[in-house]
Amino acid sequence: MNTIVSINVGQPRTGTYDGGKPFRSGIFKDPVEGPVFLDYMGLEGDGSADLVHHRGLDKAICLLSHEHLIYWRKEIGQDVPPGFFGENFTIEGLPETKIHIGDVFRIGEAEVQCSQPRQPCHNISKRFDDKTMADRVIDTGYTGYYLRVLKQGWVQAGDHLAPLHEDAERLTVDECNRVMFYDRNNLEAMRRVLAHPLLSESWKKSLMPVLARLETRAAPGHSGTS
Predict the structure, then answer these.
(1) CATH superfamily of 3-168
(2) Is 55 in contact with 127 (CB distance < 8 Å)?
(3) Cα atoms in the 13 Å half-sphere on the side-chain side of 15
């Protein structure tokens, strides 16, 4: 368990959807053989067409459980090979319900830390040529998540994610997803998520305005109208 089934990389390229409309994205990833160097920005040979919303120190590696691919193959009736969702690591085990923000692992020579959930975007829908696909991924909770790199080094398929540190807050990726997508009126849950010091700044930035509104409503004397 917790084994890398496939390491997937790719440079941005153009695909089509909805009858031939073009889109350019880094979601197209292919499995690679042998060792790959992992630095603070990601895997050697990998790239993104949108450096604002993808990549960066807190999004160096996108990880998805292999079990999710098996689910989607059955659900939609088509082959979904490793890398099809744009994930860099397809891993056996460690779903969103089992990994915590701040957990640290050794992979080969490298050390990594869970930083935030992946937020499914329109490129997943375009990749599958199904406008509902991003929402369907959110509904299942099978979003995947990102890792930041604490120590650079060589990694390869077959390496294990060996636990080095389990974060004391035990805030799972699944909890973060629920607050982002389904439980946005839960003040205490929102505070718990945003108080985590190791959650990525981009994820916090998305939720801070929501927390501000909730705290305003909860303030003594607030009428509940705007």
Answers:
(1) PK beta-barrel domain-like (2.40.33.20)
(2) no
(3) 18
The region, left, alpha or beta by phi > 0 then psi within -120 to 50, assigned to residue 108 is left
Rounded to whole angstroms, the Cα distance separating 133 from 127 reads: 9
* Residue 39 token pair: 């630095």
pTM recorded for the entire structure: 0.93
Residues in contact with 86: Cβ distance below 8 Å, sequence separation at least 6, in sequence order: 25, 26, 27, 28, 29, 62, 123, 124, 127
Q: What is the DSSP letter of 21?
A: E
- Domain locations in the chain as residue ranges: 3-168
Run of H or E residues at 15? strand 13-17
Write out pLDDT tens, residues 91-121.
999 999 999 999 999 999 999 999 999 999 9
